[in-house]
């Protein structure tokens, strides 16, 4: 531009920066979403509990990617409830997250009860059947009705101010295990393509954790059911001996183990008491426990001495190729003779509660565990005065992290237990003394004493 005096001019330079600003914003958003995907690896699936895993997922998704989120898990077992109608798929309402003032929506979504039966034709079912996410932005009432099973529930979403939905399937090992429902409300932007990609990536990662938790829960329940069925009641002892037992599974972080106990009447007035622990945890350990228990019952019918029973037990387990070692303690109570004869295959020592309240740990010769094929078991006999109680147990009762097991066993001798009254009361008192929160391993206890004449 020429100025009036003709000797000078003015130049202007303009720089358009909107594209640069948009690029920087997109770059920041990409970094945030990568960080979110990275956080999912450490924040989702920290336990093998389904409820906890689903809560971790919705807490990660809100408010970063949605104003509300809810997870439904496909229910394949209908124990205690009628199955869904033909053509319907049952989802168990698991966990949800919403901002203050919107929690009521989570409580009312899907109707009353813990389940919702999903028919074909709704968006949730489409996601599960196709394995692809579904998105409904700035939804009309007609579109809302594709999300909910009950068209009347469209009013709930409107009342909460939700305007957009995104539903992502949870796919693990090629099979749907559940679904995530996300909503945006108020001033939040509708879901875009980047949202869809990020949420589906998070869903894929979370699905593996949820499926692992579900498989764990199923195996844990199966093993626990098998173990409880086998240990519901020990065999009826000789009428001259009274017996009480307890089995307590460990906390959630530990699988069911292979603990077992038994009481088997043998010749004359004698009763064979058994306490064993198959090494390992889970369903396979429970199955192995059932095999060992059955085999030992067969061997006990011979009426031979406890050391010879253990020797034959070890030999047959080795020959059969059962690949799990087990510790085992056998004790024969003979009320008529007033004695107890025991032998150990690597198991913790028994204890006796004397009539005066004193507790003594008995240290038998320790033989090798069952399944090693080494044999070489020895028995020992102690006097059992009238009113004396014999205690057999597995390591879960006394084992404490950071404490030597022998020290923990010796600590039994410092307990004060009732000597009169039912054996069940005595076991309850014992567990109360030793329980400090959940036990770290499964606990099995067997108490026996001669009946009073």
What can you tell me about this protein's structure?
34% of the residues lie in helices and 25% in strands. It has eleven helices and 17 strands. The model has no long low-confidence stretch (mean pLDDT 84). A hairpin with a 5-residue loop joins strand 12 and strand 13. It has a six-stranded antiparallel beta sheet. Strands 8, 9, 10, 11, 14 and 15 form a six-stranded mixed beta sheet that branches. With 453 residues, the protein is of the alpha+beta class. It folds into two domains: 203 residues, GAF domain (Beta-Lactamase), CATH 3.30.450; 218 residues, PPM-type phosphatase domain (Phosphatase 2c, domain 1), CATH 3.60.40.10. It catalyses: O-phospho-L-seryl-[protein] + H2O = L-seryl-[protein] + phosphate. This is protein-serine/threonine phosphatase. Its EC number is 3.1.3.16. It is an enzyme of class 3 (hydrolase).
In CATH, the architecture of the largest domain is 4-Layer Sandwich
Instruction: Please tell me the total number of domains.
Output: 2
Query: Mean of residue pLDDT?
Result: 84
Shape: elongated
Number of strands: 17
Compact overview of the structure:
Helices cover 34% and strands 25% of the residues. It contains 11 helices and 17 strands.
Features:
6-stranded mixed sheet; PPM-type_phosphatase-like_dom; EC 3.1.3.16; transferase; elongated; 453 residues; Phosphatase 2c, domain 1; alpha+beta; protein-serine/threonine phosphatase; 34% helix
Sequence-ordered SSE layout with sheet pairings:
Layout (H helix, E strand, L loop, with lengths): L17 H26 L6 H12 L6 E7 L14 E9 L5 H6 L6 E4 L4 H8 L3 E3 L4 H4 L9 H6 L2 E11 L2 E11 L7 H39 L9 E8 L8 E9 L5 E11 L1 H18 L5 H15 L5 E9 L4 E7 L5 E3 L5 E3 L4 E2 L11 E5 L5 E5 L11 H6 L12 H12 L8 E8 L3
Parallel strand pairs: 11-14
Antiparallel strand pairs: 1-2, 1-6, 2-3, 4-5, 5-6, 7-17, 8-9, 9-10, 10-11, 11-15, 12-13, 12-16, 16-17
Helix pairs in contact: 1-7, 2-7, 7-8, 8-9
Pfam families: GAF, SpoIIE
Keywords: ATP-binding, Hydrolase, Kinase, Magnesium, Manganese, Metal-binding, Nucleotide-binding, Phosphoprotein, Protein phosphatase, Transferase
GO molecular function, one term: metal ion binding
């Amino acid at each position: 531009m020429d100025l009036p005096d003709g000797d000078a001019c003015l130049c202007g330079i303009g720089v358009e920066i909107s594209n640069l600003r948009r690029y920087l914003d997109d770059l920041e958003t990409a970094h945030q979403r990568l960080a979110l995907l990275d956080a999912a690896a450490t924040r989702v699936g920290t336990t093998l509990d389904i409820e906890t895993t689903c809560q971790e997922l919705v807490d990660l998704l809100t408010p970063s990617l949605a104003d509300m989120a809810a997870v439904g898990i496909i229910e394949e077992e209908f124990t205690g409830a009628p199955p869904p109608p033909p053509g319907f798929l049952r989802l168990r309402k698991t966990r949800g997250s919403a901002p203050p003032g919107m929690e009521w929506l989570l409580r009312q979504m899907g109707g009353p009860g813990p389940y919702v039966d999903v028919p074909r034709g709704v968006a949730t079912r489409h996601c599960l059947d196709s394995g692809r996410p579904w998105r409904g932005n700035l939804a009309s009432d007609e579109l809302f009705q594709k999300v909910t099973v009950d068209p009347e529930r469209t009013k709930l979403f409107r009342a909460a101010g939700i305007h957009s939905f995104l539903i992502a399937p949870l796919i693990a090992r090629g099979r749907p295990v559940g679904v995530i429902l996300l909503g945006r409300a108020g001033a939040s932007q509708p879901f875009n393509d980047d949202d869809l990609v990020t949420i589906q990536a998070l869903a894929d990662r979370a699905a593996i954790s949820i499926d692992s938790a579900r498989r764990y829960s199923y195996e844990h329940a199966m093993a626990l059911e098998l173990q409880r069925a086998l240990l519901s009641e020990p065999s009826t002892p000789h009428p001259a001996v009274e017996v009480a037992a307890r089995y307590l599974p460990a906390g959630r972080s530990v699988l069911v183990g292979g603990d077992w106990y038994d009481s088997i009447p043998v010749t004359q007035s004698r009763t064979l008491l058994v306490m064993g622990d198959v090494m390992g945890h889970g369903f396979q350990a429970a199955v192995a426990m059932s095999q060992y228990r059955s085999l030992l019952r067969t061997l006990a019918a011979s009426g031979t001495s406890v050391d010879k029973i253990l020797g034959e037990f070890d030999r047959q387990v080795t020959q059969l190729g059962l690949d799990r070692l087990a510790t085992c303690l056998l004790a024969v109570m003979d009320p008529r003779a007033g004695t107890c004869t025991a032998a150990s295959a690597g198991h913790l020592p028994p204890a006796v509660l004397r009539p005066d309240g004193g507790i003594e740990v008995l240290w038998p010769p320790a033989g090798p565990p069952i399944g090693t094929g080494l044999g070489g078991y020895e028995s020992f006999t102690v006097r059992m005065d009238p009113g004396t109680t014999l205690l057999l147990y597995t390591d879960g009762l006394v084992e404490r992290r950071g404490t030597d097991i022998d020290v923990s066993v010796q600590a039994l001798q410092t307990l004060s237990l009732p000597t009169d009254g039912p054996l069940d009361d005595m076991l309850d008192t014992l567990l109360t003394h030793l329980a400090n929160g959940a036990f770290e391993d499964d606990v099995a206890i067997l108490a026996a004493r001669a009946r009073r004449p």
